Amino acid sequence: MMAQSKLEQYLSEDSTTSIRNPHREPIKHILMGSAKAVTSTIHHLQMNGYASVGDWSPLLPTANPDEVMSILIRQILMQ
């Protein structure tokens, strides 16, 4: 069995939530850019009350040099 990447592990953490509550669906927010820009945006979103810093995945490298990404998974109410 292959080991899951950190990204795959993070994305699969909430995979059963929509099964438990069929009126909610996951939505994934992805930030990509320099580590400074991504971190700054995460902190800005926390100051605006949207998401805590701890809600985001750790910074993960992308295929592009000097670029990282972070992911936030939220459950939204579907009507």
In summary, what is this structure?
The protein is α+β, with helices and mostly antiparallel strands. The chain has helices at residues 6-12, 17-20, 35-47, and strands at 24-33, 60-61, 68-77.
SSE inventory with pairings:
Blueprint: H1 6-12, H2 17-20, E1 24-33, H3 35-47, E2 60-61, E3 68-77
Antiparallel strand pairs: 1-3, 2-3
Structural features, described:
There is one protein chain. The chain is of the alpha+beta class and 79 residues long. It has one domain. Helices cover 30% and strands 28% of the residues. It has a 3-stranded antiparallel β-sheet.
Q: Main traits of this protein?
A:
79 residues; alpha+beta; three-stranded antiparallel beta sheet; 3 strands; flat
- Indicate the low-confidence ranges by residue numbers: none
- Mean pLDDT across the residues is 83
Alpha-beta classification:
alpha+beta
Spatial order of the strands forming the largest sheet? 1-3-2
Give the overall shape, derived from the CA principal axes. Answer: flat
Number of domains: 1
SSE series: HHEHEE
Compute the CA-based radius of gyration: 14 Å
Number of strands: 3
How many DSSP H or I helices? 3
Q: End-to-end distance, in Å?
A: 39 Å
Tell me about the largest β-sheet: 3 strands, antiparallel
**Helicity, in percent?**
25-40%
Query: Which percent range describes the beta-strand content?
Result: 25-35%
